[in-house]
Specification:
Blueprint (H helix, E strand, L loop, with lengths): L2 E6 L4 H12 L6 E8 L2 E8 L2 H11 L6 E7 L14 E4 L5 E7 L5 H10 L10 H11 L4 H10 L5 E7 L5 E7 L4 E4 L4 E4 L11 E4 L4 E9 H4 L5 E9 L4 E2 L3 E3 L15 H7 L1 H9 L3 E2 L4 E2 L8 H6 L2 E6 L1 H17 L4 E5 H4 L10 E7 L5 H12 L3 E6 L5 H5 L2 E4 L12 H20 L4 H22 L2 H11 L4 E6 L4 H15 L2 E6 L16 E5 L6 H12 L4 E7 L11 E5 L8 H18 L18
Parallel strand pairs: 18-19, 18-20, 20-21, 21-22, 23-24, 23-25, 25-26, 26-27
Antiparallel strand pairs: 1-4, 1-10, 2-3, 2-4, 5-6, 6-7, 7-8, 8-12, 9-10, 9-11, 11-15, 12-13, 13-14, 16-17
Bound molecules: 5-amino-5-deoxy-1-O-phosphono-D-mannitol.
Amino acid sequence: MCGIVAYVGNRQVTPLLIEGLKRLEYRGYDSAGLAVVNDEGIHVGRSVGRVSVLEAMVNENGGFNGTLGIAHTRWATHGAPSEPNAHPHGGVTHEGHRIALVHNGIIENYSTLKKYLIKKGHTFESDTDTEVLSKLICELYQGDIEKAVQAALREIDGTYGIAVVCDREPHTLICARKGSPLIIGVGENSYIVASDAAAIISHTSQVITLEDHQVAKLCAGPEDKLGDGGPWAVQFKTTTVDNIPVTPEVTQLDFDLEQIELHGFNHFMQKEIYEQPEALRNCLRGRLDHRDGRVVLGGLSRYSRELIRAKRFILSAQGTAYHAGLIGEFLLEDLAKVPARCEYASEFRYRNPIIEPDSVAIAISQSGETADTLAALREARDRGALALGVVNVVGSTIARETDAGVHLHVGPEIGVASTKAFLGQVAVLTMMSLYIGKRRFLSDEVVRSYITELDQMPGHIERVLEQFDHIRACTEHCIDRDNWLFLGRGYNYPVALEGALKLKEISYIHAEGMPAAEMKHGPIALIDQGMPVVFVATQGSQYEKVISNIEEVRARGGRIIAVATEGDERITQYSEDVFYVPAVPEALQPMLTVIPLQVLAYHAAVLRGHDVDKPRNLAKSVTVE
Ligand code: M6R
């Protein structure tokens, strides 16, 4: 969604804000803006488009000098992407002081509040819900910006991560959160606030993660202005919105700047595709015990009895994480022999679900901040399920709200198209299924053989990636086609869904994924001469059935692209292009078969000239429902 960065300290703020916005740009990129406070007041700059447009505008205009500022990169929810709708928004208090605010989230009762504020004499320049909050703070301001923010937030329904400044208090930055992530980096003479760690890590690795309903007051300035500390003093205070003091916990960030630079790759997506062997090694590290033939998941050990007893698993997620969850459904039933269902979190949360006793809910999310996934998890937990998380971002909201869980440890994922997180999610769900299966019905021998196979998966992925250029050449043949189908069966049916999602989200080519047999029930009507149809056709229990489906498509002129098992010569009779993956047990195939489809989507987006890492209309983390 939107990204926030804010700073108060002893350095010039504008370059810091621009650098931070660039690191957060994957969260939203339809417009950007900043506000800098100095002795002359608040200077606001806003522009439509990428952060580079804002940077050029700021450099041209000058005047943005100061050591306190807030900035924002937007992904439109209320109001089209336009300069008036870009953040910061602001207002003037009764005494004539100016405030400026940046916001990530949605103010649900904004129209009621807007009517009230209009009656009070406020005028509005934008179509946004955020401007309502900024005017409400002005309305409630009585000489103390912290108190005004607290009072305003008490009136708000919805979600927010905010940073606020006021020209009357030029050394004070206020921030607060409910439902939208906000992290405070604690520097030597400064504080930097951001929606995620990517904007903080180059400054400090000491962070405070603000909790819902908390407000932080961060001050930095010459000691005579703050009356504390050395020549440059800093002060920090956290309260609830009801002004009850809270003692914050300072923690250490667990990744470094190097992990989020491009390192010679053209795009983060390409880098993250290539990082997958190493990401998987990190995900598996310390979790496969060859000596005792078991999976070690420290995060689950406190609940191993509940997991053995569990009668049903409910997995919920969105997008790519949902596809990983569908594979998890197969894995849990196949390996752990326990009923499992994966649902879109957005549907689960509103359908009054029946949660039987001894149910376990698993929320799957790269970011750990997806609004629907978080809400589904809360719903399941409130109805008595044990709440587990399969999450990448340590310290994220979902990670903190679960009873237990397993982190992916695949490193930060910056590209909007999820790649290595999918791999990590499937790997963790595989390990969870073996962990539970071993305690239920799986023989030691079977668990041992899976552990050996899992250990070899990173090397197998390296082999698949050797076809990077070959996949590009095949993609070129079909790049002018606007409709694609992705088909698979069993474990590879969710991979087909994922292949279609990858292609459409970054290349804007229309693609549909479905079970291969479902094609005959309607979609086969779409197939005409040369239509690209991607079959995930690896050898396994349904191989012959998939071959029959391939024949059906070929008979209607479709162009077959197959993902097949190394050594399968037969498939070449039916396919124009083949991408090979090493032979592994069916349950592990998705971790390999998805790789060529990620690469295909990447090449299609590049060949069509699109911005691979920042596809139109999308944001990395969807923190609104
Ligand atoms: O952070 P999450 O894993 O919860 O995100 C879920 C989806 O928004 C995400 O997977 C999305 O579908 C990606 N853009 C897919 O590449």
